[in-house]
Each structure stands twice: as structure tokens, then as C-alpha cells.
Design brief:
single chain, alpha/beta, 49% helix, NorD/CobT
């Protein structure tokens, strides 16, 4: 058995605390702290001193007060509650300042009243990024997550409270948040809101009771869908229901109609009279139903999407006519008839999992991604796409302000302090505290001013031989084939599959017919985000190298056909982190984009973690099987006279990269810093960074990355 260590002596504690609090400068008295610590066992002393050191990175006075108060409360607080208390005080300091944070430390009894929520509860900030990614992977309308006063949805946004603490363990509270989000998605996906709430329950003597009965019955219908669509999560939801300590109520008797894959909200409405007056079952993951919020949101969306779809269809007609001119010129009568009778689209639903197809003049047209999203959203609201929605809008029929988002003036966001409207707020990892600083960094997206329009031509002339070589390399990557095995038909016999099939046959089992193999041209599904360091340290040849490399990459990526975007980043301090739009994923590589690449100039500092988090969100919004986040930088993370220049910045960047990997993104760094080997392996991993000293090597390195990640 391992012997326990001796407690720290009075002298050791005094020396350590004097050094910790730099008493010759702070004038803080440490003798009272020594007096309360000296009589504790060594394990408790180490625990308290460890958290005091963490809090010291936040504020010296909070740390000093913590030691006194925590010893007073040791007999009433479990260690996990003490940890939650310390983190809560640090969060309050970040958000409100020193005085409110000291009040948290001093008012232990007040904290104890909500100790479980602080210790085992899951905050919205902790689950937002994870569950946003989860929702993106579900079918149907693109949904957003937001913090609200309770769990509910307006059919576009899924609201969760600031803290979820209904269950005993934090992992179960996280799973509860996931189940609640999934249930609200099911409401939007399977037609729960395809109801006129104002009229549907007006005839009942007690409309509120009828609405509650509707919600309970619809929950049974949605549960059947979720059991079929998300069986793994459904099993977890069943376990959550068993953990719920709230008073249980018996379910209704079975309603086979609601278990059917064809069950609709109309079946629910017809069953309401049968359950009125009965106790209503309540699920722990069941959200609140807010008909007013749903109705207001849906009415606005349905009108807006009708207009937007008709405008988009008019654009498709124009493109279709430009691509397929008539074989013979139309007569005056035919032209007049065409003007009076505008073309109409038909919508064909493909086989399950194949999407949908628009038909114009008996010719199929694959709708672009934004039109697909529109059609999906309309079908969720209406059940199908009404015929009048498929008539392209006439010239000038709608005011653009009805369907275009109003762009905010970026300068307006400076009118606040740092929670400005129009800015993006991101957390930041404090490795000393071992927790996030919530809503700590403020990001603004800015348009980059164009540069010298002849810059690109100069680069193309200077590196024409290199660009030709790279084009051949990338074209070969585009045409790469891969061997598909165990196919029902093909060019050759799959020996492995044949051997297994013969063995099955001898054992009396059915012999598989998938005995062939064939070469298949790979369908590329790639999205790459280039994150360009625009800090002041890139001034000179480094900035020139970045711009030249981006020109060459754009030239060859256009040949490859993969989706790519380019954003720059810089800033001063946590309240002014700036992202510069150079090329969005849907921007063409045209004169405007080339001018913005030429306009990349050195600016301020390199707060890297927040830039990674912002661009990770953008990259995850793109449909692609493989997503790359490639950083072009000249050095390690740093900021203006800030703790970010220390290990803090490296650890925050490492955490941001870990978050990106967790969503399926492959990060890679290309640096011109010869000292990169001192910190990049810790941030990116040993195989995910490279140091170069020549601009001509940069596109070749990117080609190597592509090949490794896509073969």
C-alpha cells in the first residue's frame, strides 16, 4: 500500500504562497491562508493549492479569497462541487468583472442552492458546437441552435436553456440535450407543424386541453419515426426515460395508426377526442409546444420562400435558354405566346435517397444546392410543392427587399462594448483553468479591398512552367480510378469474394452473388478552406509568397473541380478578431477574386484559435465527404501585449484544432517559421504540418496533402 505524503509544513506553505502571490508587489497577507491550510492532509492541500493556481491566472484577489472560503466549506462541499464553484467564479469574472466574481466566492451558501446544476449541469455553450454539427447531419431543413428560456422550436431555430441539469450525471444531461434537439428536429421533419393551430382546437370546450392532448399523441407518432430513423439514439432516449425521477404517468393505450410509417399529423388530430380527460404522458426529452412562435415563423418563411423559389426558377430559365438556344427562330406569334405563357417547371421526386429533379420543356434540370434546400423546406411546410410555386417570377415582379437578406454595415457593430450585434462570439480555451472562457472573442467578417489587378498576370507569367506541371498533376488526380470489390457485376472476378462464397456454399449457407470487381472513376467530394495569416509579421517576401502561392493554387484547383474558399485572418486583442473574405465557396474565380488575392496585405496579430473556430463552422456548412482546413502562416499564435503570446495561445489553438477534427475536418499547417518544430507538432500532430522556405514548394505540398487524404 502506497504511504501517504506528509502535509506541507508552516514554513513550506508560507514560502510557496508568498511566491505565488508576489506579496512584495500585491501586499496581500498570506499568513491567514497558511493558518487554514497547515492542519489539512497533503491531498487536500494539493487540491486547494492547485485550484488557487488556476484561479490566479484569472485574478489574484479571487484566488486569495478562494483559499479562505473553500477551507470554511470543505465539510459541506464535494470536490466536484468545489471545482464547479471555482469555474463559475472565473466565468463571472470574464462576463461581469471582479466584484460579482468575489461575491460568488464569498456567498458559498447561495452557490450550494444550485450546486448540482453547476457541478453536473450542461451549459448551452458546452453543447452548442457539438449539437450544431449533429443537426447538420440530419435530413430536412437547415436548423439553428440558440439559447432560450426553455426547450422549444419555432420550426427554424431549436432553443435550449442556459443550463440542463435534470439528471444526476453530466453525461446524461448532455445526452438529454441531444435527445431534445433530435425530437425538435423530428417535429420539423415529420410535419408536426402542418396544422392551423388557431382553427384546429377552437371547437373544443377547452382548447388548451386539446392542444396538450395533440402534443402527447404527436409525441407517440414522432417516437415511432425516431425509432426507425435513429435507432441508436432511440435506445439512449429509452434509458433517459428510465433515469427520470419525475412522477410517471401511464401511456395511452396503443394507437397502431400512429406507429405506421405513413402516419401524419392528421391522424393525430382525429384521435384527440379519444384521449381528452385522460392523464397525459410526459417524456423527459419532450419540448414545450409554442403554437404562436411556430405560426409567426412559418407564415413569414412560407411567403418568403415562395418568392425566393420563383426568383431562383426565373434565373434557371434564363441559364437554360442561354445554354440551349432554339434550333429555329420563333415567329412573332410564337414569341408573343411565349411572353404571355411563361414556362412552368415540373418537380419529379427521384428514388429514395436520390433527391429531386426539376423538368423544364421536357428536359430534366438538376437543381443547384440552394434550390434543393428551398424545395426541401417548402415540402416540409406544405407536404408538397404547390404548382403556383413552380412558376418562374416575371421581370420585376417582386421587390428584392422581400427575399434578400439586409446586409449590416460592419462599422455599426462598434457602437456597443463587445457584445455587438453583427459580430460573432466564440469561446476560448484557458489551459490553466482547464475550461473555456465563454463568449470571449469577438469576430467580424470584413470584405478585403482589391489590390493591383495586374498582379495575377505577373504571377502566371513568372511561374508558367510550374503551373503547367501542377495542372497535369491535378488533372491526373481528378481522373484517378479506384477498385470496387464485392460487386454483383464487373470487369473481373473478385477472388476473395469467390473463396468466401464457396465456403458459405459448402457450409449450407446461401452463396452471395457479389463476386466481381471493377474499376470505378472516383466521384470527388472535397471542400478545402485556405486560412491565410495576414499578421504584420508577414510583411515583405512572406506576404508575396502567400499571394503567389494562392494564385497558383486557384489556377490548378479550377482544373480539379473541388470546392475551395480563401479567408484571411488578423486582429488586435480578443475584442477585435477579424476575418477577411477573399473567396467564398460559391464565388467564381474571376477578376474580383483575383483582385482580392492581390489585396492581401499584412495587418495586425495572429489570434489563431478563434479564426480556426469561425472557419470550421463555415467549412462544416459545405456538403462534402472530405473537408480540409489548410493554414498558411509564418509563426506561432500571438496577440497584442496579451497572455495569448504564451503557452495559453498554443493550447487554445490545439484545442480549436481538436474541435475541428471532432467534426470530421482534416487540419494541416504550412509554415515558413523555421522554429515551427518547437510548437507545431504539439498543435497539429507530427504528420499534419510542414515547413517550407520557397514559394514554389507550397502548391506541390498541397497536392501531396490532397493525394494522401483522398486515396
Amino acid at each position: 500500500m502506497k504511504a501517504s505524503l506528509q502535509p506541507y509544513s508552516h514554513e513550506t506553505l508560507l514560502e510557496r504562497l508568498e511566491e505565488l502571490y508576489e506579496v512584495e508587489f500585491t501586499w496581500l497577507k498570506v499568513e491567514p491562508l497558511v493558518a487554514v491550510l497547515v492542519n489539512l492532509d497533503r491531498d487536500t492541500q494539493d487540491f486547494i493549492l492547485g485550484w488557487a493556481m488556476r484561479l490566479l491566472t484569472t485574478n489574484v484577489y479571487i484566488s486569495h479569497e478562494f483559499i479562505i472560503r473553500v477551507v470554511e466549506a470543505l465539510d459541506r462541499l464535494e470536490r466536484r462541487v468545489i471545482e464547479a464553484w471555482a469555474v463559475h467564479a472565473a466565468d463571472i469574472f470574464d462576463q461581469q468583472g471582479l466584484r460579482p466574481a468575489l461575491m460568488v466566492i464569498q456567498q458559498v451558501d447561495s452557490f450550494l442552492e444550485n450546486a448540482h446544476a453547476h457541478a453536473e449541469g450542461i451549459t448551452f455553450a458546452e453543447v452548442e458546437s457539438i449539437l450544431s454539427t449533429f443537426v447538420c447531419g440530419l435530413s430536412g431543413r437547415r436548423l439553428k441552435l440558440a439559447q432560450g428560456d426553455s426547450v422549444y422550436t419555432d420550426s427554424e431555430t431549436l432553443y435550449l436553456p442556459n443550463i440542463t441539469a435534470q439528471l444526476i450525471k453530466s453525461k446524461d444531461n448532455f445526452l438529454l440535450c441531444k435527445a431534445q434537439v433530435a425530437f425538435m428536429w423530428a417535429q420539423t421533419r415529420f410535419g408536426s407543424f402542418r396544422v392551423d393551430f388557431a382553427r384546429a382546437f377552437a371547437a373544443y370546450p377547452d382548447p388548451a386541453q386539446a392542444l396538450a392532448a395533440f402534443h402527447a399523441l404527436d409525441t407517440l407518432r414522432l417516437e415511432a419515426y425516431m425509432e426507425r430513423e435513429l435507432p441508436g439514439l432511440w435506445r439512449d432516449m429509452q434509458r433517459l426515460e428510465a433515469l427520470d425521477e419525475a412522477e410517471k404517468r401511464e401511456d395511452f393505450c396503443a394507437f397502431p395508426r400512429l406507429q405506421s410509417p405513413d402516419a401524419t399529423v392528421n391522424d393525430v388530430l382525429e384521435l384527440i377526442p379519444q384521449v381528452l380527460g385522460l392523464p397525459l404522458p410526459q417524456r423527459i426529452y419532450q419540448p414545450r409546444l409554442d403554437p404562436q412562435a411556430v405560426t409567426a415563423c412559418m407564415l413569414a418563411r412560407m411567403e418568403r420562400e415562395k418568392i425566393l423559389l420563383r426568383v431562383k426558377l426565373a434565373e434557371l430559365v434564363k441559364e437554360h435558354q442561354e445554354e440551349t438556344p432554339p434550333d429555329l427562330p420563333l415567329s412573332g406569334e410564337e414569341e408573343e405566346k411565349k411572353a404571355v405563357e411563361p414556362p412552368e417547371f415540373e418537380l419529379w421526386e427521384m428514388q429514395e435517397g436520390q433527391g429531386m429533379e426539376l423538368v423544364l420543356d421536357d428536359k430534366p434540370i438538376a437543381p443547384p444546392e440552394d434550390v434543393k434546400q428551398l424545395l426541401t423546406s417548402i415540402m416540409l411546410d406544405w407536404g408538397d410543392v404547390p404548382p403556383e410555386f413552380l412558376v418562374p417570377a416575371g421581370e420585376g415582379e417582386y421587390d428584392p427587399s422581400l427575399y434578400q437578406k439586409e446586409e449590416k454595415d460592419i462599422e455599426d457593430v462598434w457602437k456597443g462594448i463587445y457584445h455587438e450585434e453583427g459580430a460573432f462570439l466564440y469561446r476560448e480555451w484557458d489551459f490553466a483553468r482547464q475550461h473555456y472562457r465563454k463568449n470571449w472573442c469577438v469576430v467580424r467578417e470584413l470584405e478585403l479591398s482589391p489590390g493591383d489587378p495586374v498582379f495575377v498576370d505577373k504571377v502566371l507569367d513568372k511561374y508558367q512552367g510550374m503551373i503547367k506541371h501542377l495542372r497535369r498533376t491535378f488533372e491526373a488526380m481528378r481522373d484517378e480510378n479506384r477498385l470496387l470489390k464485392r460487386q454483383s457485376q464487373g470487369d473481373d472476378v473478385d477472388i476473395d469474394a469467390l473463396v468466401e462464397a464457396l465456403a458459405d456454399s459448402r457450409d449450407g449457407r446461401e452463396m452471395s452473388d457479389k463476386l466481381f470487381q471493377h474499376m470505378h472513376r472516383a466521384d470527388r467530394s472535397m471542400a478545402v478552406m485556405f486560412m491565410v495569416d495576414m499578421s504584420g509579421s508577414t510583411k515583405g517576401w512572406i506576404n508575396e509568397a502567400e499571394r503567389e502561392a494562392l494564385v497558383m493554387l486557384c489556377e490548378v484547383l479550377e482544373k480539379l473541380g473541388d470546392q475551395y474558399a480563401i479567408y484571411g485572418f488578423s486582429g488586435i486583442g480578443r475584442k477585435r478578431c477579424e476575418i477577411y473574405r477573399i473567396k467564398r465557396f460559391d464565388d467564381p474565380y474571376n477578376a474580383a477574386t483575383k483582385a482580392r488575392i492581390a489585396g492581401i496585405i499584412p495587418k495586425d496579430y495572429t489570434r489563431l484559435g478563434v479564426a480556426i473556430r469561425h472557419l470550421t463552422e463555415k467549412l462544416n456548412a459545405v456538403e462534402a465527404k472530405t473537408r480540409l482546413l489548410i493554414t498558411l502562416s509564418d509563426g506561432k499564435p500571438e496577440d497584442y501585449f496579451d497572455i495569448y503570446n504564451t503557452q495559453y495561445g498554443i493550447e487554445d489553438t490545439r484545442q480549436a484544432l481538436f474541435e475541428a477534427r471532432r467534426t470530421g475536418i482534416h487540419p494541416f499547417c504550412i509554415t515558413i517559421d523555421q522554429r515551427g518544430k518547437d510548437y507545431l507538432p504539439h498543435m497539429y500532430g507530427h504528420a499534419n504540418w510542414v515547413e517550407i522556405d520557397d514559394v514554389k514548394k507550397l502548391p506541390l505540398k498541397v497536392a501531396d496533402i490532397y493525394r494522401r487524404l483522398t486515396t
